[in-house]
Each structure stands twice: as C-alpha cells, then as structure tokens.
Design goal:
alpha+beta; seven-stranded mixed β-sheet; 7 strands; rod-shaped
C-alpha cells in the first residue's frame, strides 16, 4: 500500500497524489506499486526489494543520486492474550531521492504510524535529511522504551520465580534474553550505519542535521549499553534460579530416599515373620509391629543426623 504525506503548518497530512517534498510510505507494496515507484521516482527496484527482506542487515548505500538506508526497528508482539509480550526487530528501508523520502516496510509498524498520525511534532517532510534523522531518533527512542519494559517485565518474572519456581517463568526470562540479543545486534548495526552518515560522505549534512544526528547516536549508544546490562542481569538471574530449582529437586529426592529406606525396614521384618521359619522370637503380631516401629525410627534418626542429608 502506498500513502503520501506532506507537512502543512507543521502538521503531517495525507495527500492523494505524489508531490515533490512529500513523504511516501510503502507498506508491503505490490509489484504494481513497486513499478509505480520505479517509474515515478526512478527508484532502483533492488532497493525496494532489499527493504522487504526480513533477513536484510542494516546498511547504507548510494547509487545514481539515490541513498538507501536499511535499519531494524523494534517490534513488540503479543500472539495470544495468555501469552507474554515478545520483542523482536524488523528491517525498514528509507530511500532518499532528489525530491522525496520513501519508507519501505514489510508490515505496518508503530514508527510509520506515529509520523502519519502526527504524534511527532515539528517535522517538515520537505527537509528530507532532517526528516530522516527525526525518524531515526524515533526508532532509537522506541528501543529505549522497549528496553525499559523488558527490565520491568524481568523484575516481575523474578518476583514470580521467588514464589512459584515454575518452568513458565524461566522460559519467559529466556525469551527476554533472546529479545535483548536481537536488540543489541540491531543497535550495533544501526550505530555503524549512523557513524557512516556522520562522516558526511554519503548524505550532505547541515549544522542542525549534525546536532540531531548526534542525539540519535547518543540514544543508540545508550540502548546498546542498556541491552548489554539487562542481558547480563537476566542471564545471571536465569542461572541462579535454575540452580535453586535443581537444588530444590535434590532436597525432594533426599526426602523420598529417606522415606523409601525407612519403609523398607518394616517390610524386612514382616518378611521374616511371614515365612514358615521355626524358633522366631516372640512369634506374635504385636512384637513384629513393635520391632518394626523401633527399627524404622532408629534408621530414620540415624539417616537424618547424617551430614549428607542435611
């Protein structure tokens, strides 16, 4: 789907036609729409297809007056009401032409929606470079927002683990750790792309653009540091609680072992008195019960006082 937006009185509004200085949003474009972009704006078809590849890595390249920037943006999804929120990343392409900025996404995303709905204020689509940097700043801000959510969620799961010690909470921590790996990898790739842009060799930078780009770099570096710290915390927490669960299992096994040994003593006594053997001492029911109870209690005391079972 192709949508066209332009700034009117510091507000982004949707238009029906393609105009110079407007922003073109292409979400899961069809072959017809890709051909239209190629024909009307002269965009290389390979640029568009690269942005639609889920496995495409972050990069920047320039060719024949066009610049392609591919970056990953964070995604928070909830497959089911009973399932916890999962975090991932998806690629988004930003194509800078002589007259327009084109964003290409495989699916609807919150970054494009925020700009289309006017959530981000003071954005001018005709200032193409600055508009791109505002979009990059919004992406970096989403990373920080989701990282804070992951931190709060991990603290909640840790509190639940202290009470329940179930596998569900451990699996949730593993899922959060995997999300942090995705975030860290994407942010590091984003930092590399931003460093190339900051050199000014690919995109011409103005003074105000450089300040905005530096703000983006600061937030990206902060996101890398946060994801690294949270990843180490969750990794340590997961290992600690996994060890606690294993230790609790050992305690249960020790208790069951003691019970098994103690219960085997009466079986041995009853086995002797159940055989047709002559000259057994006091061959009466009450004596067998008494000796069984005494022996079982003695064995239980000896075992529980053993250091191995403490």
């Amino acid at each position: 789907m192709l949508k066209f937006y332009k700034s009117v009185n510091n507000t982004i509004v949707q238009t029906d036609t393609l105009e110079p200085g407007c922003w073109v949003s292409a979400v899961a474009p069809t072959e017809t729409e890709i051909s239209a972009l190629e024909e009307n704006l002269g965009i290389d078809r390979d640029f568009i297809r690269s942005a639609l590849d889920e496995e495409e890595s972050s990069r920047i390249e320039s060719e024949e007056g066009q610049t392609l920037i591919i970056l990953d943006y964070p995604v928070a999804e909830k497959a089911d009401e009973d399932e916890a929120i999962s975090y991932n990343t998806m690629p988004m392409g930003i194509i800078l032409t002589e007259t327009n900025v084109v964003t290409v996404c495989l699916k609807d995303n919150i970054i494009v929606e925020d700009f289309a709905q006017g959530v981000v204020k003071g954005v001018q689509t005709q200032f193409k470079t600055r508009f791109i940097f505002y979009m990059l700043l919004r992406i970096a801000g989403k990373y920080l927002q989701y990282l804070k959510q992951i931190d709060k969620l991990s603290s909640y799961v840790e509190a639940q683990l202290r009470v329940s010690m179930k596998n569900k909470e451990l699996l949730q921590l593993l899922s959060l750790q995997k999300s942090l790996v995705y975030f860290s990898t994407s942010l590091k790739s984003t930092e590399t792309v931003l460093e190339k842009i900051h050199r000014g060799r690919v995109i011409k930078l103005y003074e105000e653009d450089e300040d905005l780009l530096e703000d983006v770099l600061v937030e990206v570096k902060q996101g890398i540091e946060m994801s690294s710290i949270y990843s180490h915390i969750i990794s340590g927490t997961t290992e600690a609680f996994a060890g606690i669960i294993s230790n609790n299992l050992n305690i249960v096994m020790k208790v069951l072992t003691v019970i098994t040994i103690v219960m085997s003593v009466p079986n041995m006594v009853f086995g002797f008195y159940g055989m047709n053997v002559a000259d057994l001492p006091v061959p009466t029911t009450w004596f067998a019960l008494l000796i069984s109870a005494v022996l079982a209690a003695s064995v239980a005391i000896i075992i529980t006082r053993n250091k191995f079972f403490k």
